[in-house]
Amino acid sequence: MNQPRVNLSPPVSDEVRKTTCYMCACRCGINVHLKSGRVSYIEGNRDHPINKGVLCAKGASGIMQVTAPSRLQTPLRRVGPRGSGAFEPISWDEALETAVSWLEPLRATAPERLAFFTGRDQSQSFTGWWAQAFGTPNYAAHGGFCSVNMAAAGIYTLGGAFWEFGAPDWDRNKLFVLFGVAEDHDSNPIKIGIGKMKDRGARVIGVNPIRSGYNAVADDWIGITPGTDGLLILALIHCLLEAGKVDLDYLARFTNAAYLVNSTDGPEKGLFLRNAEAQPFVIDRRTGQPASWDAKGVQPDLGAVWQGHRTVFQHMAERYLSPDYAPEAVAGRCGVSALRIRQLAAELAAVAFDQAIEIDQPWVDFRGDAHAKMVGRPVSFHAMRGISAHSNGFQTARALHLLQIVLGAVETPGSWRMKPPYPKPVEAHPAPHWQAVPGKALSGPHLGYVRGPDQLAIKPDGTAARIDKGFTWENPFSAHGLMHMVIPNAHAGDPYKIDTLFLYMANMAWNSSMNSAQVMEMLTEKGDDGEYVIPRIIYSDAYASEMVAYADLILPDTTYLERHDCISMLDRPVSEPEAAGDAIRWPVVQPDRDVRGFQSVLLDLGARLGLPGMVGEDGAPKYRDYADYIVTHQRRPGIGPLMGFRGDGTVEGRGDPNPDQMQRYIENGGFYQAHVPDGAGFFKPWNMAYQDWAVEVGLFDSPQPYVFNIWSEPMRRFQLAAEGHGPYQPPDALRARLKQAMDPLPLWYAPFGDEGAEGYPVHALTQRPMAMYHSWGSQNAWLRQIHGKNALFVPTKIWQAEGFAEGDYARVTSPHAQIVVPVAHMAALNADTVWTWNAIGKRKGAWALDDGAPEATEGFLLNHLISELLPPKGDGMRWSNSDPVTGQAAWFDLRVRIEKVGRRQQSEPAFPPVTRVVPKGGKRA
Q1: How does strand 309-311 pair with strand 260-261?
Q2: CB 352 within 8 A of CB 283
Q3: Is the pTM of this model over 0.85?
Q4: What is the pLDDT of residues 133-149, one digit of tens each?
Q5: Are 477 and 885 a contacting pair, CB within 8 Å?
Q6: CA separation for the pair 396, 385 (Å, rounded)
Q7: Residue 534 and residue 532: Cα distance in Å, rounded?
Q8: How far apart are CA 776 and CA 779, in angstroms?
Q9: What would the 3-class secondary structure string for 685-714 be?
Q10: pLDDT tens figures, 250-278
């Protein structure tokens, strides 16, 4: 009998093109399979250093992004009221001429009246450069709404940060502790790393109110009360100091623990004693005499007292050995028993010191001292929004870095290590530039790291120079700006009015704002003159998000598979601790719509506006498009956006532009790696082999060794000002807050959301699921099958107390607003916490979803419950609901009460649908 022959493995493609994923911040390498020129399949690139072939549901679903019905088709001009979604198509020439007609007068007269803010665009070095050339001080990306507390605390303390700028030594690590980490970020590398650890029998501990994702596969879970992580961490430090389980040699050599703190009353109190060269000094144990902190052979004395002045270490020990930080004193507040806190401290100490690692690798430090071995503490940590998105998040992140430091568990074998271009001392970063001059570029980049009150962005009359009030007394270290305050401040005219709001990939009318319902009203409100309070809004996105409906002019972007992108060492590179790395995206398919890559559009706009750096001496455009910019632009001589294949194609790091560079990247799988030499991979801030290599490849222009900052002098300078010292003085209403928040040693204070929380006993949080990262994930046809709707997860105690049953809805009320949402029972949850997945809920009419789609009916946001302002204090000030150090949005401070309302069919509030920008059944690729 003849059996039919079935091809069980038909070819999925006739061509494979390698590029970089954009479905989360991992930026994994992907193989995009094409069949007849169309994307047919996406898999991981096994040669890529980040994911090594692993690809998650998000990455594989990228195919549905390039075919999404919600893709914008052409430039659009608003023809109906703002918020209606009524537009007419226009040509690109008309769109760009309109934008120029709005922007050109502003640049000539008042460039600060342009506010340019971007979302998760991953090209912030470029967009910041454009805004700097325009001359507006009002630029930032989404970090202030996301995790600036992590970034700033890391830079000011370690010279590097969690997020994607560091990683555990997965091959040697024996204990990994995660604080506040959901599963959306850096997911493939962490999954691979946890897999390696479990294969070796190493332990993973999750500290998080919610047991999902990484915490669900952890060997142990600590369901902490939200906002108390810093208190738990300082209790662990208390236990380690109490037991003498502290790496004293590490503290003396590689931190400022041995620096002497001035104890004399006056304007220098709390600053470091300095020598004649204005350098901090230490007391050398060998001589008992002062010596430069970086002198050859010096052995800093942690216990020294000199002329009555004590070391940082003594101040630190005095603070954290206080009974206030004993586990018994903090257990009730943290929701973690004193016994469990002591057990965790003992486990950290046992692994760090009893299971220490030694590598037979000689190295020489910055003092010229030779070391025969590299000694490692195989304990590592990772943290994310769970500790960052609180009003005490900056100090909590600093506390966690201090815990790493006292264990000697940064940049050592088995511990957490930084990824190039980090480590980098805070002094190597610019201070923010903000002085707007009509017709001129800013004198430097907008964002940076202030070292004292003299670097704040404050005008001579005492008002904020930036629309978001970044780098002011209200939030001095706002290194990523305050994106969540741009629209509220512009609407209030505080500190001034703006003319044009220019947003890219920032869904500010929905899930990228707190107080979303009122933000939508702010975008549509008109003044007494009948004109919109925010006169003009330009928006660029690839998809018909909720924000599109509130714009006046739409510049449609491509999808990530249809354009060039640069994942640069100047920005957020794809490095690993063993190598500096960068990557590209390139158009593996061509758009079938009248859309253009936003970065190329910015260059076009810049040329039309005559912005410096974007036109030649003859006024002609300097760059054809973004791809040309990536290859030919130089930020400084020999340093461009990409580090690989420079000069004649063989030069790494520093070198002339190479016109074939883009093609070389494409041939190499879309990425480049410059490997750290043998012997330079650990102790990088102090290892001269690493420092010399970093100069060679252009990360530094000269070696930059430094010590970690346990005691933060920049913070102490702000405290001194609050105490009345110095020529720069804060408003009286901010003095008490600055004295507390700017403490030079890490501390804990209650989240601001606790104020006025009487009657709101429940903490409410959001997390992004592993299957979604950008808000566009919940319009992805494949990912919607995983998360088509969300519920409010309720712990057993509240579930039983309220008498909830499956299918019930609850009314959730905050001091600001209320919502009605479906609930679900979850046992593995802090007993006083409810939570939901973020950004699942959609507005009807947006994203080309049917009005009856579950995302638009049952789906919801907690954002409506969160105000961008703290309750009024009767002093006339608008207090931002943010961390007082960085301005990080404190959306995890949310407190609510919850009550059963029975069965419903739809969540509330239910907003009227917006007009579909992309017609139903519209064009598909």
Answers
A1: antiparallel
A2: no
A3: yes
A4: 999 999 999 888 888 99
A5: yes
A6: 11
A7: 5
A8: 6
A9: CCEHHHHHHHHHCCCCCCCCCCCECCCCHH
A10: 999 999 999 999 999 999 999 999 999 99
